[in-house]
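Work through this protein:
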Amino acid sequence: MASNSNREFSSNSVSMRISGNLNSKRKAISSDGRDQMTPPPSRENLNSSSPSSANTQTVASNFVSNEGTPNEGTPSPTSLACASKKVRSEVLVHFVKLKDDQGNETGRAKCVYCSKDYLANSEQGTSGLWKHLRDTCKKFPNKKEFVEAYKSRDKMQKILNFQKASESEKSKLSCWQFDQQACRDALVKMIIKDELPFRFVEGEGFREFIQVSLPMFQIPSRYTIARDCYYLFVQEKKKLHALLTSQCQRVSLTTDTWTSIQNVSYLCLTAHFIDSGWNLHKRILNFCVVKSHKGITIGNAIDFCMDEWGLNKVMCMTVDNASSNDTAVQQLKKKLTKKNAFVLGGEAFHMRCFAHILQLVVKDGLESAQYSIRRIRDVVKYVRGSPQRLEMFKKCCESANIKSKASLQLDCPTRWNSTYLMLESAVVYQKAFDKLEDVDSKFLGEFGNDMPSEVDWTKARNLTRFLKRFYDVTCKISGSLYSTSNLYFPEIMRVLKDLQAFQSSNDLNLAEIGRMMREKFDKYWGSIQKMNVMLFIVVVLDPRYKMDYLAAKYKSFYSENDVNDLVTRVTNSLRALMDEYKGNEQVGMGGVINPSNDVEDMVEDEELDDYFIEREKEQSLVSKGELDRYFGELPEKYTHDFDLLNWWKVNVVRYPILSKVAKDVLAIQSSTVASESAFSTGGRTLDRFRSSLTPNTAEVLICCQDWLRSSSKPIQLEETIEDLESLESEITQDPEIVESVMPRTRVDC
């Protein structure tokens, strides 16, 4: 493919494409119309420029097809463009301006192919010349390619507009011009990012919108869009592989299993790592079909995916508490041990999901209040059952002088956060429910003695206050845009403190809930032997906490011996980690180095200066005392907006080995799921859209969406009740809409 470059001329000239392919000799037409054979100019003559010839620059044009291939049959007009005046339009390269006997221009130009002449003065313009080449000239070679190039040609004149790369950035002034390929690439990314079906491009509404907004855009078919999605997936996969290879020491993995509506089982494998710039990354590596949810099957599938990506160094794998995952971890450890992929001999490889354990703890606590929750759920469901009931309930709220504008929410029994949100919204309207008994006879008749009592409402208030702590903790620990491993231990201690407070409550119901939840808590987090040592190491590597904080918090709930055991275990494990990383660094530099032997070798070298011997000894001592120096310094001031990754980025020079440990430990994920899925106690099920895809297409779209999206916010395909009511209240303020829409709505009801 011949490359085209822009050559800048003086202020009155334009940028022209320089032809790189000359296939034949050109005809140069003189002013009297006679043809004269002229050899093509050499590349040296084309590229040469001097101040004396600034006003006689050689210009040429090479029309390019959609694929970017030069038109081989088009004669090069480079020898025709050497006129005394500068060429102002590309089309004039295919014409020669005619002159009279005195050498003055006549205002007409002759086609170099068919010798027809046309008006070509500044007043007439060049549209006639373009039309001649496009429609009339029968001798013009490769007319088809010329027409395509003409349609998509760069007309030089661009449009100024204001654009924002993201919502957080300010608008920037930029120049825009139509580009068919760029628009097509953007369309493919929109299909992937916004989870649109391939048939979207064939929709009537989309085509009408393009016809109005961008009529020159040629809409591709759904088959072309699907093929482009696969091409984009391949390109992005190569980029991610290069990133993992060049900027990643070790990765931490999270895995989860999904099931489609057709009962096809999928495995989702996600990598978490920190790059050389200390930026945290979360990337879905695979979304592949597995034969079953058995542990051995899952373990083999993960090992296959890791081999595909070339991942040989792993820090931790975070999984939920399913028994099949325990088997999968053991199966994977057998395979990875042979590859020397672990640190600490694989002791810290298995990390249990924080959100899943907390979810089990909360579920046990809700068991004792199921009857009260069910009664409140039923009355909320009744009110939201029809528009008439909801309208009647709003009148009851007005008569009860309730100022809250929050909407009643129905819960999903498998999502305890929705139960919390339902109770939180319902307790505010207790008086309105009481008034509804007097206004709506069907309300009392349907429930009878099964109406929520005062005891039920009291339990709901206590539960709301009780569950708020767990709701906030789960949201905080399930983030994916920031490091969460350093939050694991502090949040566990806060949960334990709350459970102790509820156990000692004067409210017997609340005390019973606290007792049941504490039993489940102790099952997973009751002793240091049950917890992964990385949970403690990452706290120590937070410069706001360090070892003193860890010991003080643990001492508040456990004995002195337990605290001493914890400190000893963490210190020994951290020193072992540093030794491993130091050894790996030395191997990476060309072989294992023994500092003491090096010093002895230096002493034997008579020509070596004593200064270098002493410096080597000092450096060896400094590296050994790096951890002691870190613990010896005062902790950083505690602030909520403290940037932990940036602190280590700044202090890499001071702690070269410890910073490498911190980079991998801080990438460990506390939860296997994002915030929007952290509350579910049911199975992970693909939606109807993704379930309709073939397995390969599902993996392409899900992985590519994760790689392309700049934000990790969940896509909300459905409007929430609050948003719809807010929008409706604003829209109905328009008098025209109120007159034409609202009366009809009331009649329909």
Summary: The longest strand covers residues 265-274. The chain has a mean pLDDT of 75.
